[in-house]
Amino acid sequence: MAELTVLRDRLRELGSVVVAFSGGADSAFVAWVANDTLGPAHALAATAVSPSLAVEERDDCRALAREWSLRWREVVTHELDDLAYRRNDGDRCYWCKSSLMDGLEPIAASEGATIVLGVNLDDLGEHRPGQRAAAERGAAFPLVDAGFTKQDVRAWSRRLGLRTWDKPAAACLASRVPYGTPVTVEVLGRVERAERGLHALGFRAVRVRHYGDAARVEVPIDRLADALAARAEVVDVVKRAGYRYVTLDLEGLRSGNLNEALRRSAG
Question: Could you say which DSSP state residue 139 is in?
């Protein structure tokens, strides 16, 4: 398992950091360790706020900051103002991270700090153009530098008593929209309402993939039977979110599965 001391040493090398803090397991771990290692004067957790961030996630960032005594602030980003982002091609995440960097760079400059992201080694093999956008503009990936995998992050988070150790991955809401389908505030709101309703039914890990009037619901394989047993309630909350048709994906929850279309087209 990766060594926490190596991560702490890397953060000390950076000296002062602004952590892009989405509240997920990775960014939360980096924010906690940075605060614990450098102190709040040299570690700021910043949460990007836009229609692509679910309100539940925004509220959890605020709660975590309070629980862990993080120095924290919200930063409004404007990716939806960018046509390159809205058109939603394979590089959508590049433009999203560019907007994030636009918001964080002035803060980092005023702090004399480096922007850091919670990218781990497992992320490097995936289609993540956002990483390229951040790296091009000088962001650091301390988890990668310290040799941390996703499993390492969760194991250390659990050892440190961080409640995010088993938090399901929660990518931005735009990741539910197939490439080529324009990203709009209305679409993001519909996805968010549907997923919030499913969370209330007890489906903690869930994705609602947007296909116009149809929603494709993904839950982990071991929860498929539960989703079928709650069929009426699932259909109700998803339809109330604005969808006419509700389907259940029998392959289960797969993070980043919309990238399969990119791989097929490249092949």
Answer: -
Q: Give the mean pLDDT of the chain.
A: 94
Q: Which residues contact 162 (CB under 8 A, 6 or more apart)?
A: 28, 29, 32
Instruction: Give 128-175 pLDDT, tens digit per residue.
Output: 899 999 999 999 999 999 999 999 999 999 999 999 999 998 789 999
Instruction: Put residue 214 in one of left, alpha, beta given phi > 0 → left and psi -120 to 50 → alpha.
Output: beta
Residue 184's alpha-carbon distances to 90, 108, 181, 241, in angstroms, are: 16, 29, 9, 15
Instruction: For residue 255, name the pLDDT band (cuts at 50, 70, 90).
Output: confident
Q: What strands lie across the sheet with 245-248, from one edge to the other?
A: 207-211, 214-218, 245-248
Phi, psi for 257 (deg, rounded to 5): -70, -15
* Residue 161, token pair as written in the block: 């008593």
Say which residues have a Cβ less than 8 Å from residue 134's Cβ, sequence separation at least 6. Answer: 97, 100, 101, 115, 117
Exposure string of 51-86, with b = 16+ CB inside 10 Å and e = fewer, is: bbbbeebbebbeebbeebebbbebbebebbeeeebb
Q: What one-character DSSP code corresponds to residue 257?
A: T
Tokens of 76: 């409004």
The number of beta carbons lying within 10 Å of the beta carbon of residue 206 is 23
Helices (H), 146-184: 150-159
H/E segment holding residue 58: helix 55-68
Tokens 């960097």 belong to residue: 101
Q: Report the alpha-carbon distance of residue 76 to residue 63 in Å, rounded.
A: 18
How much is the pTM? 0.92
